[in-house]
Amino acid sequence: MSEARQQGRLIGFASGALLLLAWAVAAHLHGDRTVLPSPAAVLDVLWREARNGNLWTHLSATLLRVLASFAIAMSIGTLLGLLMGRSRLANTWLNPWLIALLNLPALVAIVLAYIWIGLNEVAAVVAVAVNKIPVVTVMLREGTRALDPRLDEMARSFRMPTLTRLRHVVVPQLAPHVASASRAGISLIWKIVLVVEFLGRSNGIGFQIHLYFELFNVAYVLAYAISFIVVMLTVEYAVLQPWEQRVSRWRRDAD
Amino acid sequence: MSEARQQGRLIGFASGALLLLAWAVAAHLHGDRTVLPSPAAVLDVLWREARNGNLWTHLSATLLRVLASFAIAMSIGTLLGLLMGRSRLANTWLNPWLIALLNLPALVAIVLAYIWIGLNEVAAVVAVAVNKIPVVTVMLREGTRALDPRLDEMARSFRMPTLTRLRHVVVPQLAPHVASASRAGISLIWKIVLVVEFLGRSNGIGFQIHLYFELFNVAYVLAYAISFIVVMLTVEYAVLQPWEQRVSRWRRDAD
Amino acid sequence: ETLRFATLKTGTVNWELDTIKHYELDKKAGFEMEILEMAGNPATRIAFQGGEADSMVADWLWVARQRAEGKDYVFIPYSTAVGGLLVAPDSPVQKLSDLKGGKIGIAGGPLDKSWLILLAYAKKTEGLDLAAETEQVFGAPPLIFQNALQREIDATINFWHFLAKMKAKGFREVVSVTEASTALGLDPETPLLGYVVSGDLVNNKPELAKGLAEASRAAKTLLATDDAAWERLRPMMNVADAAEFEALKAGYRAGIPGEDSVDVEAARSMYALMAELGGEELVGAAKTLPDGVFYQGE
Amino acid sequence: MRIDIAGKSFGSVSVLGRIELDIASGERIALLGPSGIGKSTLIRMVAGLDRDFAGRIEDVGRTAIVFQEPTLLPWRSAVQNVTLATRCSASDARALLAEVGLEGREDAFPRQLSLGQQRRLALARAFAAKPAILLLDEAFASLDPETADRMHALTEQMIRTHGTGAILATHDLDEALRLGSRLIVLSGRPATVKLDLSLAGVRDDTGRRDEIAERLKVLYQA
Amino acid sequence: MRIDIAGKSFGSVSVLGRIELDIASGERIALLGPSGIGKSTLIRMVAGLDRDFAGRIEDVGRTAIVFQEPTLLPWRSAVQNVTLATRCSASDARALLAEVGLEGREDAFPRQLSLGQQRRLALARAFAAKPAILLLDEAFASLDPETADRMHALTEQMIRTHGTGAILATHDLDEALRLGSRLIVLSGRPATVKLDLSLAGVRDDTGRRDEIAERLKVLYQA
Ligand SMILES: Nc1ncnc2c1ncn2[C@@H]1O[C@H](COP(=O)(O)OP(=O)(O)OP(=O)(O)O)[C@@H](O)[C@H]1O
Ligand SMILES: Nc1ncnc2c1ncn2[C@@H]1O[C@H](COP(=O)(O)OP(=O)(O)OP(=O)(O)O)[C@@H](O)[C@H]1O
Ligand SMILES: [Mg+2]
Ligand SMILES: [Mg+2]
């Protein structure tokens, strides 16, 4: 097992290296370094921004926003998804609202939030959450609908307390849906945070990316984009994957 | 059954009406019609734009882009998701790329697509697909992992042909994931299409929305946003829901 | 020969371009104009960078920075119209130092030319580090505009047509950028906004660059005097009332640069001053104005 | 407990007809009937899992059910499957698992158990719940004779110590005789009670046993 | 068919020991052994569903399996469950379903069938596949005696008409005697073949039947 995991990590590294290599080759072939700078050039920028502290300021601002919106969107979205998946009536009532919200352009939500709440953090986080909640709701609703009714009956017949039931019967079945909602979720949130920062914040990765985009400095744009990707890769390999391996032990053949 | 559906439709209407009412009341209370125009004002704009044909030009342009990118993203994403969910090796190799792509800012992808491919439809559609494919992949991968191994064994032992297997064993299990990937997918795609149109097209709903945003004409912004929401509501109730009801008959108790 | 322009469909440049097209000033200047309408400023940059457009509008500070980074871009003057710092009618703010601890809404980000100039101005005249002493809210121009109307922010720096509308609503100018540039030793006639074209075009097709300058000048001459030409433009100006219309018209006219070619020395001294005050953050790698930013005719 | 069912149907198919039964506390009903007649349906109704029928079922008391399929939480170990559903302690659960022959497999996940082992796990879970009425839906199917015998003994002991009542659906008359105190046979379409008799004393009376077997044969073919 | 297994283990638990068997074509193996001994595991290995073991299984031929749990496609009707897996025609499938007593339920979804009905559906599916070797993993459990008898008869007929071979895991000696031509008993830990004898003539010889039952009892308790 541990050997397999070690090998997995090795392959992961190799794959990442390959990605870098592909980029380096593409940059070399392309020639115009202003359009596609080499990995070395971007790394250099990254290093400079890390040294002078800019990177950390903006990265932490963005991460805080992402985390706050993620927490809000996941919890509200999960609750709504459970409700709509469980109760036909709730679903019939809420569905038109859900579809409307789901397809409300991010720009509209963001602009309205900034206008109503003001140009501040609260508005930024609310705008992102409003964009993300319906997506989580949709995913969790489908998951809830696919719950095994037999296990539900078992839990009912043994009068399992609601919390136990949620934790041991419902959540494990929803886990794949929650996992994909989280992965797709963070990435979506971060994409919206970029827009939110562009439209009305004074710091954050999105702010920087747009700034350097204005200046046509692709190296900086990529450097900041990559800083977040690195964070997400870390989260993926340090948090998500170990967690997934732990909760999916039961799928495996042997102990 | 038919009665229940009729009732469902009634509730749906009531709920939509309630949404409109809530908006009307909010607009009335808010007072400033430049910031939050009343439904009537927006409807008026919608009507005007529909009559002079602008609405149809832009709506059809956007819909075509959404459809093309949706088809591409769903098919490639589903294939990749199946592959990565099935094969551990493929997953270990491709995962770093997936995470990178998943968290690549839309802006970066769009700008690169426009610069490399040119300011044309192909670039627009590719940019959107690139943004969406990893999301579909993630969702389908989780779905594939949750496939029931016993049914898979059954299919193998009866040597069911690959296509039959896909259609009758795999797809029905993936249906909830595909359904949520589609719903969340279209909405995500449309959000990206808006950005794509903003950054490099001369027509489409996104173009109009940003244009009127620049002019701070909220009524127009909302009118165009709503035109797409109406399309999606139609798709939801005319296509998705009947389809879902048909494929989930087996979950129900009686015939 | 065609010359392709990527422009913001709602931008003020479009008034000029539309006039050129309508009165066939392009043909007279020996080229055919083609307009690529975009929904946002970033889009015009992509179109220009991607080679889909031959020209777009930007300010010369931006062009200078690009040149310093090795891109051969050339600036052809278009307008001296710039904004200023506006406060609400009932605001107690009289000078920049009154803004200490307040919130300034700035459209277009921290590299906005008006903001940079005001920053330098504050430092030079009042010894004030405006960036440090106030909170800046950068945002999309319409959002800044709306938040200013809602009094969420204490002062506003925005594109001039938004400022014109605000003035029509009674907002008061504390410092204008013209004032500030004068105080910084800059010729207020130095046009801040202009058409950007590639050096390639200037060198290989000089007649096109020249034609562009001529057509632009011809349109300005027309708009400077001819009210009928303005009436024609009115539908595309998105004005709510006559006051706004007049304010925009006056604003445009005030922004028409003089006939003389750009005073490069004045620009150089301003650039040096800003480099000194703001450092790399503000102006990028080059400490002095790179050569060749301004189009010099033939 | 009083069962008073006017009818139960799935969609247009009527499965159960009128069924009226008074069941004393502690009574052990052996429920027989051909495959597909409605035994599981009736048990689910008694357990309160299916309320969509005409009539009522009253005074049921606390039940614990062994479903016809094991119905375990695949993502929880054997011990946890017992403790989570019944709130009994882990050590009690382990002791019970040992009794049903799952010693050493306590930490296995259900999918790592043979079907017979899963059934025994489900049985242990029902026992751990210490119910007033045990509902066993063919709980002893697919067990080898020895193991089945041990399970029967365990059930008997459980029933005797706690005075637990029971309804056990089964296809095996001998199992019914061993564990039941009253025999109820469903048959017909829609199904009604075709036979309802006390089993007191029948266990050791081969003659009566064979007589009942004959009657069943006739009923099943109807 | 040749089975030559050196050993099979799940993780650190060794389930099967050395098992060597030569099986002639058309032979009908009744596979007995206590619950949890490894019968299903062996059948899955023969079916080629589990290749993670030391040793080899050769010349198996086309198999059709009835899993211990029905394992149907819940989203396809009874008929479709037969036709999709076996590519037989819908009318053949309907005829088979009638034979296993599912007349009138052909268009029901599996979850709308009783467990016994689901098992019969799984049986019909295996028959429809017309295999060289039938693998039945307790295919007749949870059926009432009458239905079980009908199923046995059907299986016998199937085997006889097509000369089909079979491996049937069961706990019921009489079932083994009726359908099997050779008895193999697994026991021990790891399990090995403890008994391997021909059943020719035993069916009607009560004496030998009881003798075998005695030997089984001893083996099971080991
Ligand atoms: N959800 C359902 N929808 C439609 N029909 C159903 C449903 N559940 C059960 N039935 C039908 O009701 C009848 C009784 O089913 P039930 O499961 O109670 O039988 P049973 O007596 O338990 O049979 P077995 O001994 O095979 O388990 C069967 O004919 C079955 O097809
Ligand atoms: N995936 C698995 N992981 C670990 N152990 C397993 C797994 N599958 C089966 N086992 C163990 O292997 C042994 C044999 O299981 P198998 O299912 O073959 O038994 P069986 O003879 O079919 O029993 P039954 O008659 O109860 O169906 C059991 O002790 C079981 O716990
Ligand atoms: Mg049943
Ligand atoms: Mg087994």
From TrEMBL, chains A, B:
<feature type="transmembrane region" description="Helical">
    <location>
        <begin position="97"/>
        <end position="116"/>
    </location>
</feature>
<dbReference type="GO" id="GO:0055085">
    <property type="term" value="P:transmembrane transport"/>
</dbReference>
<keyword id="KW-0813">Transport</keyword>
<dbReference type="InterPro" id="IPR035906">
    <property type="entry name" value="MetI-like_sf"/>
</dbReference>
<dbReference type="Pfam" id="PF00528">
    <property type="entry name" value="BPD_transp_1"/>
</dbReference>
<dbReference type="GO" id="GO:0005886">
    <property type="term" value="C:plasma membrane"/>
</dbReference>
<feature type="transmembrane region" description="Helical">
    <location>
        <begin position="63"/>
        <end position="85"/>
    </location>
</feature>
<dbReference type="InterPro" id="IPR000515">
    <property type="entry name" value="MetI-like"/>
</dbReference>
<feature type="transmembrane region" description="Helical">
    <location>
        <begin position="219"/>
        <end position="240"/>
    </location>
</feature>
<keyword id="KW-1133">Transmembrane helix</keyword>
<comment type="similarity">
    <text>Belongs to the binding-protein-dependent transport system permease family.</text>
</comment>
<protein>
    <submittedName>
        <fullName>Aliphatic sulfonates transport permease protein, putative</fullName>
    </submittedName>
</protein>
<keyword id="KW-1003">Cell membrane</keyword>
<keyword id="KW-0472">Membrane</keyword>
<keyword id="KW-0812">Transmembrane</keyword>
<feature type="domain" description="ABC transmembrane type-1">
    <location>
        <begin position="59"/>
        <end position="241"/>
    </location>
</feature>
Automatic annotation (TrEMBL), chains D, E:
<keyword id="KW-0067">ATP-binding</keyword>
<dbReference type="InterPro" id="IPR003593">
    <property type="entry name" value="AAA+_ATPase"/>
</dbReference>
<dbReference type="GO" id="GO:0005524">
    <property type="term" value="F:ATP binding"/>
</dbReference>
<dbReference type="InterPro" id="IPR003439">
    <property type="entry name" value="ABC_transporter-like_ATP-bd"/>
</dbReference>
<keyword id="KW-0813">Transport</keyword>
<dbReference type="InterPro" id="IPR050166">
    <property type="entry name" value="ABC_transporter_ATP-bind"/>
</dbReference>
<dbReference type="GO" id="GO:0016887">
    <property type="term" value="F:ATP hydrolysis activity"/>
</dbReference>
<dbReference type="InterPro" id="IPR027417">
    <property type="entry name" value="P-loop_NTPase"/>
</dbReference>
<comment type="similarity">
    <text>Belongs to the ABC transporter superfamily.</text>
</comment>
<dbReference type="InterPro" id="IPR017871">
    <property type="entry name" value="ABC_transporter-like_CS"/>
</dbReference>
<protein>
    <submittedName>
        <fullName>ABC sulfonate transporter, ATPase subunit</fullName>
    </submittedName>
</protein>
<feature type="domain" description="ABC transporter">
    <location>
        <begin position="1"/>
        <end position="213"/>
    </location>
</feature>
<dbReference type="Pfam" id="PF00005">
    <property type="entry name" value="ABC_tran"/>
</dbReference>
<keyword id="KW-0547">Nucleotide-binding</keyword>
